[in-house]
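Give me the fold.
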Amino acid sequence: MPLKLKDLSQYLNFAKKLVNASERIIKKTPSHRLKIDFKSDKSPVTKIDMKIEKELRSMITKKYPGHDIYGEEYQNKSNNSPFVWVIDPIDGTKNFINGNGNFGTLISLCIDKIPVIGIINCPDINKTWIGIRDNGAYCNGKKIKKSQNNLKLSKLYFSTSGMTAFKSNNKNKKYNALIKKTKYATFGGDCVQYGLLAEKRIPLVVESFLKPYDYIPLVNIVEESGGIISDWRGNPLNFQSNGDVVASISKKAHQQFLKI
């Protein structure tokens, strides 16, 4: 049975409060004062990442103390609740550090392990994309027309975050084959590229090595705008997915990618 907007409205309004809180923290911080540390996997993290997630976790715990929280920077909170809030305080931290606007806060609410609300909030480019299961996708409050096309890979270009496509592993074969089958590639979009896909600005996004907090918030935005998002085998994304993600506005191109 399709979800009704009225049944999700309290959670949607609260999710908007979460991204507003994140945006306030980002805008208060002078970019030249960022303190950068590195995690065990050599990915960078700033005190702003930590501060945002700490604040959002506090807000969720206060509002919904029984809900679970799954985030990037802190130990996950589990009460075996059917409600799980997913947080990526800054997706695209490298872009954030570099002063590149292609970064944002990702928020999702899952009910019974199914994403029902997803938000990408990108303060530097003044864009907020919201996807609500069974109730559409929106950019800055305006509903995105739900549509897709059936173009072949050869008619499209693709976008990817960048260095994940160049790591020394067998995934490179997939990227190299894709480059030969498409018009060209663009790099470094992180979460922004999925919002632009929802707007039909970018036709295909391919990434690997993602974590659930990177891709769970994208699902409703892509699907409710008419796009397709899955792992590289065509399976729906969930918390156990292996981190290989493909999203497209073309059903034919998506199927062609899966066969590479």
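The domain at 5-143 is CATH 3.30.540.10 (Fructose-1,6-Bisphosphatase; Chain A, domain 1).
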